[in-house]
Prior knowledge:
- By secondary structure, the chain is of the alpha/beta class.
- The protein has three domains: about 5-105, no CATH class; about 105-155, no CATH class; about 160-345, 3-Layer(aba) Sandwich (Rossmann fold).
- The chain is built from 13 helices and ten strands.
- The chain has helices at about 5-15, 35-50, 55-60, 60-80, 110-115, 135-140, 180-195, 210-220, 235-245, 280-290, 295-310, 330-335, 340-345; strands at about 25-30, 85-95, 100-105, 165, 205, 225, 250, 270, 320-325, 345.
- The strands form two sheets. Strands 6-7-5-8-9-4-10 form a seven-stranded parallel β-sheet, sandwiched between helices. The protein has a three-stranded antiparallel β-sheet with strand order 1-2-3, with helices on both faces.
- A hairpin with a 4-residue loop joins strand 2 and strand 3.
- It is globular, with a radius of gyration of 23 Å.
- The mean pLDDT is about 90.
Amino acid sequence: MEGLNQELQDIMWGKINPLIPQSNASFVNVEKMKPFLHATLEIINEFRGKSKYYFIFNEENNKRKIETLMRKISYVLKDIKDNRAWIVNLDYNSFLRCKIPEFKPIKIDQFLKEHVWHYGKKILLTSATIPYRANIKKWLKRLGLGDKSFTFMQAPMSFPIDNRPIYLNKMAGSLSYKNKEKNWEGCIKNVKEILEMYSNKKGVIHVSSYSMMWDLFNELREFSIFLHDKRKLNDMDVIEGWEKSNKQVLISPSIFEGVDLNDDKCRFQILFKIPFANLKDGRVNHLLFKEKDQEWYNNETMMKIAQAYGRAVRSDIDHADFYIIDGDFLPFYQRVVFPKWFNEAMER
């Protein structure tokens, strides 16, 4: 309902907010949210028909947003009726002081079949981080393309290996929940050694959560650190903020992909913690524990690591070093197939 005036938003939200399940869980089954979805459609139609709000709802930008929202809700309800599984994450919003529902489909194959793939007779999928490299057919099935014939082609990496080394020599112990406390000091020691080695260069430290970002910052206060404060900066603004700050090192849990850190913007990266998918996310929890899809879970993590590695070296004349700290990397590396260009850059 973004775009509507605050008074109208408050009135409408007040009517549907009580329909959000009161639960301490981070996610709920979508069946529990059907009354919320139906009520949202009914309330939008009710207020849209009132002359008092006619001009607000019919302002071009608002009209487009509302129609898009209604289409999305209708699609979710249709999918539920067709027995397609959805999950709803409940994330607490400190501004609204309540939980906000986020609807996620468990599978996306049917959506892609209905709304994307039918537009073309031939489909070209390109990526440097294609998952399921040992079983491409399974990946295509997940995308709704399992009945298609295909050709899988790989091109060699054009960036010189010497320009993009992956160092494991600073790897310390496991940073898993049960091992973090005993291995924390050794991991911090190694990070500090790297930062001292690159004292006149800019770099990024990738962490797995905002809470870990703050924990790490408290250990590195003697260094020039810029934090990704999600209360103030989104993923794109944080890069601009970091550049303007003249701070040496950026710590963030959410720039594994989608940002360009070319040339002197970033000459080293540290993967502090292996970014396993969050088990508090309803979709992740469902796929891993209910469907026992460990292969999917491993591939999601692999893609995130490979994407992080690619943030800094952006051309064949660019260069940056990549360090892995978390000792869980090597056992994980044995469970999944990384791209060849990643494997060939590893130095133990």
